[in-house]
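Purpose: get a first structural picture of the assembly so the mutagenesis plan has something to point at.
Setup: two entries, given in the order below. No constraints added.
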Amino acid sequence: MAALLEIQDLTHHFGGLCALSGFSLTLAAGELVGLIGPNGAGKTTVFNLITGVYRPTSGSIRFLGEEITAWPSHRITAAGIARTFQNIRLFKEMSALDNVRLGAFARHDYSLLEALGRRGRFRAEERRWREEAWALLQRLHLAHYAHTPARNLPYGEQRRLEIARALISRPRLLLLDEPAAGMNEAETEALMALIREIQAEYHLTILLIEHQMRVVMGLCRRITVLDFGVIIAAGPPEEIRDHPRVLEAYLGREEPLVAEGGDGRP
Amino acid sequence: MSRVPLFLRRLALPAGLLALAWILPAAELLNPYLVQVSMYVGINMILTLSLNLVNGYMGEFSVGHAGFMAVGAYTASVLTVWVVPAALAPWLFPAVLLAGGAAAALSGLVVAFPSFRTRGDYLAIVTLAFNMIVKSALENLEVLGGPRGFLGMPRLTTLPWVVACVLLTLVVCRHLIYSNFGRGVVAIREDEVAAALTSVDTRRVKLYAFLVSAFLAGVAGGLYAHVLQFINPRSFSILKSTDMLVMVYLGGVGSLMGSLLGAALFTVLLELLRPLGLWRWVVGPLLLVLLMIFRPRGLMGFRDPRWLKEEEELPPGPA
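Result (structure tokens, whole complex):
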């Protein structure tokens, strides 16, 4: 079976700093893969490279068999890769409905002149995407915020609104950047359930960055671990949990305790 | 309700305004001075709507819109003086205005392309440079009168023409803003990177915004040239651009109603301050400073009355 996303040997430098080096990852359709690693390991850089925010120093990204490495962001998104952001990036002054509709910007099929003259395909297309956005707001229990500016939504609702905005373009691949950040336990549970549901409903392939191990271990069948821009481990959750290099990256190397006092008190 | 009454109701207000614009001067209920001021108000409304598209809705900062206005004014003037036969001029006036707008839109590309790669302060400098280039070019084109200016245009601009142009501008801006492209324009203001990542083709949207904005400023320039019947490069200096900025930030950024209000208030204010002589030119910049400090969003910032917005029905369902 052909891979949905194929990343090969991706390397990215910020000036002299090597943020990512020799990163390769293949996603098959329908997978839910986790990408973890300590702060600054290069996880978000991977997302930014896939979505065209940065151009890689070297390496290639193929999506649905096409080389997308040099494409501009809007084209990549229109081709079927949608994402959310670590620090929520909604259009704050715009209504929730408009935020979701913007996710389908590329799919509104009318010209500037049709818009200015309110003729041709304009009305049918506007109606179509307005209703689609409305249905998604309902699906994600956000409908009563439809006309509320995004900045006035509670935090968890803003996260869901970002997901709605990503879903309206009917992506094949969804990139979730720390969706559970700042959520309490109950909210995190609900989010995990939601991710499972939308994956099934929308036939999504998902790449997930997350810090809460519970979320990653609970959702993903396969996990890739980054540290200092290099993949240090990849495999099923059980394997990752006990992988010595992962433990080292997260907890530090175990040193023999010599200088500490003997009673174990800090 | 049947279609026709709704259609008629929509046309009632514009038709009424046009009729008033025609009858009031004709019946001498409005003296020529007031007609003149009303025409300036209308021209300034078009300019303010045009600038608000870029500065208010898209969140860029153009300080060179007088450049677009100059291109429109000179193009329209050249056409009526040299090309269009005098007998046909009143009939071809709309075409002349459109040509002025089109020329200005073309010159808008000079600013639109840099806007793909730069924004904020740097784009503001590009627009400033554009304004200066246009002014210097006109000063050095002897064929257009150079610094002495260009004259001989018939007085083709009448109050009904101005009112018609304002109404059309309002419709164009409203239709643009309440469309997919308009949402894209506002998304660029809110977060350009996020916009690109939600599939907004930011270059195309910027191009459209600058084209429409420059076009409208060009039309306003054509109207202006045919009220005054005399234009010179100095009428399109940075000072003119500053006036437009004051009107946008007075009325309200990101607001159609605010644009109309700002243009009307500022134009009338300047007329009332005529006794101050040269000092009245201090009013605009001073007002701009005060507005920036005390009310940076203006009177109507980011708001519009409901009747100006697009009515959008949502399907029934649990909210």
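The longest helix of chain A spans residues 122-139.
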